[in-house]
Specification:
mainly beta; six-stranded mixed β-sheet; five-stranded mixed β-sheet; 49 strands; 36% strand; elongated
């Protein structure tokens, strides 16, 4: 139903420095720069502007022609900060160093490289003209049977998967002696083209089938069984094709909905209709003869009362089943045993009555004998498939086919239907991968030229990625970037070379674009605004005696003190400027020190003359050292501690949203739990009360565009 575009966006105040990644240099990204990424983080679920959950299932803004975007922003209300100061107990004033700083924010942006279409061009090598005799023994174990099971893995399919998962035996009961192979995939392309392959002779086949069919229920709600049937038969996500030459092919689709969910959910995509699958089957087999489609679906002939758990009638699947001479059962059946047994019987009949010839016979030239007895009027010929309509040969019988076939040119060059992307071409002959020494690619004519022509009648498969769209080499970042902080990972591995930063486009640029469908994660510090306010605790009656001066020049620096904060004017702020704060020690003469912050009591330590205090006390921001027994002439005391910055109650959602904020579904969590005690004004979320330091607040937004 809905295509979800997902990327990750995390925001946390950088309190301490980060490690240094590889150096970045400026680079021109060319024309392949990605736009600013869409940044999701978390589930949907709408609330009103006062944080109250809204049930708006009847007003779902779903539009099949739009995509669902999910954005998210995370905030950390503050983590423990280390600090310290040195105090001369004989000095009535305390000096504290301070460095003027700027706000930096950790960013983590995720991208997915484009996934260029994979193309497979199949060609049949030619052959000379000659009379042919094919002799075949009716032996069930020689029959090749390839079954693809396409399982709906959307949210409503748990019960149906469980029903099917234990039914391998009835599916194989009539074909167990054949040379069978079963592949399983799902109706969600994001889960892959083939997820499991089970071969005759494998150990624990029932358990493997059960694992494969229990595919989960977190797949897309827009079930594309037709597309996935074609993807599964092609097997292009595998190292080599799993469908064998000359096998009978059976496709079993198990779903409580139609192709494209309701039959209309795929827009203008080529797989929107059943013909996408039937056309492909026709290109590899004789449709309805050695290629059939079966289904466990809500058949159009059933009423809702007959199939109460069906979501949409399977009109497209039903047309495929009928058009390929398959059979079907109801998705709503409590037990699929009878349906699978009927499918097994149908497959068995087609296997035992069909014989595949080496070539297409010239019409009128075919002579068929069973154990030497001439056959007449009890078989049909379709291309190179002979199907007995009555009296099929018994097990062990010798069947002889004498016929003539036309010649076809024997060639060494095979055309590609699209232009291949560099480095992606693979060549198979009769399903086996051919090394690059055996052929050359002629770019001018877009063809593969073999050094020696493949064998007569060989199947030549050319597999490659189309060279359009071009791979992306430039990925745009948001905000002002601290270039030295950039880190890049591709498919989870850090990249240390071949990547640079292009300042004019604010982009990370790869010298060689990441591979198709690669996951790219860029982390960096976004440069924020100047920090003009610094928390500093001083008794109110001592503020007038506080002074601040430049640590190098000693010149006084003007400041204001309000609400427990030292505030500088923008005119005196310089990033990295060292200043000295001098303020009266309220505990002078009492072996006490007033700290500029209220510390975490257990974190406070004091040392003088190499002696560590074992008996200090902390009250508010005052450290009492009278129990330390420091020497009278100890002089300087070094105090270290941790403190928590003030909590937060206001959070501003900053990612760009291209639609009205009133059309956005908002969702807020605090430390992973849903949170509703706030109000929203535009992008600003104000909590009814401040959350403690260290609290993780996440604001998520979902919208269609």
């Amino acid at each position: 139903m809905k295509t979800v575009v997902t990327l990750l966006y995390a925001l946390a105040l950088l309190l301490q420095g980060c490690g240094q990644p590889p150096a970045f240099v400026e680079r021109d990204p060319g024309s392949n720069a990605l736009p600013k990424p869409v940044l999701p983080d978390g589930p949907g679920g709408r609330i009103d502007d006062h944080g109250n959950p809204v049930d708006d299932d009847d007003n779902d803004p779903f539009d099949p022609n739009k995509e669902l975007y999910q954005l998210g922003q995370s905030f950390v209300a503050g983590s423990a900060v280390s600090d310290g100061l040195s105090v001369d107990l004989n000095d009535p004033f305390i000096e504290k160093d301070l460095t003027m700083s700027r706000a930096y924010f950790n960013r983590s942006l995720s991208y997915t490289q484009v996934n260029r279409p994979t193309i497979t061009d199949n060609h049949n090598q030619g052959h000379p003209a000659s009379p042919v005799t094919d002799t075949i023994t009716q032996n069930e174990s020689d029959h090749l049977l390839d079954i693809l099971v396409v399982v709906d893995n959307s949210g409503s399919m748990a019960q149906e998967q469980a029903n099917l998962a234990t039914k391998l035996a009835p599916l194989l009961q009539e074909v167990a002696d054949t040379n069978w192979r079963i592949a399983v995939n799902t109706t969600d392309p994001a889960k892959g083209c083939v997820n499991h392959i089970i071969n005759k002779g494998d150990a624990n086949i029932a358990a493997k089938f059960q694992t494969a069919v229990n595919a989960g229920i977190n797949g897309s709600g827009n079930e594309v069984g037709v597309l996935q049937a074609v993807n599964g038969l092609k097997g292009e996500c595998l190292s080599s094709p799993w469908v064998r030459n000359d096998s009978n092919v059976a496709v079993l689709i198990v779903s409580d909905e139609d192709n494209c969910s309701n039959g209309n959910g795929c827009g203008t995509q080529p797989h929107k209709s059943a013909s996408f699958l039937s056309d492909y089957l026709s290109s590899i087999r004789v449709l309805g003869t050695n290629a059939r489609v079966y289904g466990i679906v809500w058949h159009p002939s059933q009423t809702q009362a007959q199939c109460s758990t069906g979501a949409f009638k399977a009109n497209q699947y039903a047309s495929l089943i009928a058009g390929t001479n398959g059979t079907w059962g109801s998705i709503c059946d409590a037990d699929y045993t009878n349906t699978l047994a009927a499918i097994s019987t149908d497959i068995s009949i087609s296997l035992n009555t069909q014989f595949t010839l080496s070539h297409n016979p010239v019409p009128g030239s075919l002579v068929v004998r069973v154990n030497g007895a001439l056959q007449s009027g009890n078989y049909n010929v379709t291309q190179n498939i002979v199907t007995f309509t009555s009296n099929p040969p018994p097990e062990g019988a010798t069947v002889t086919f004498d016929y003539n076939h036309d010649s076809a040119p024997i060639v060494a060059s095979f055309d590609l239907s699209k232009n291949p992307a560099a480095g992606t071409l693979k060549v198979f002959v009769n399903g086996s991968l051919v090394g690059p020494a055996a052929y050359n690619y002629d770019a001018a004519n877009n063809e593969v030229d073999f050094v020696s022509p493949p064998a007569h009648n060989a199947l030549v498969s050319l597999q490659y990625r189309e060279n359009s769209p071009a791979l992306i080499s430039s990925f745009a970042l948001s905000g002002s970037v601290n270039v030295s902080s950039i880190g890049v990972k591709v498919n989870g591995s850090s990249v240390s070379s071949g990547v640079s930063f292009h300042t004019p486009s604010n982009s990370v640029v790869f010298a060689t674009a990441p591979a198709d469908n690669a996951s790219i994660v860029v982390t960096y510090q976004e440069i924020g605004s100047a920090i003009l306010s610094y928390a500093f605790a001083v008794d109110a009656n001592l503020v007038d005696d506080m002074e601040i001066e430049d640590a190098i020049s000693g010149s006084p620096i003007p400041f204001a003190y309000m609400g427990g904060n030292i505030i500088f004017g923008a005119g005196v702020w310089v990033e990295g400027r060292q200043v000295v704060i001098r303020y009266p020690n309220a505990g002078f003469g009492q072996m006490s020190v007033s700290l500029p912050h209220t510390p975490i009591s257990a974190s406070v330590s004091a040392e003088a003359g190499g002696m560590l205090c074992a008996n200090l006390t902390v009250t508010g921001n005052v450290v009492n050292l009278s129990g330390c027994n420091f020497p009278v002439n100890a002089g300087q005391v070094d105090i270290e501690y941790l403190y928590l910055p003030a909590g937060s109650s206001t959070f501003t959602f900053t990612p760009a949203i291209p639609v009205s904020l009133d059309d956005v579904l908002w969702d807020v969590t605090v430390n992973g739990s849903a949170f509703y005690n706030y109000t929203r004004t535009g992008r600003v979320f104000t909590f009814n009360s401040a959350v403690p330091s260290g609290t993780v607040v996440k604001v998520n937004a979902s919208y269609y565009n």
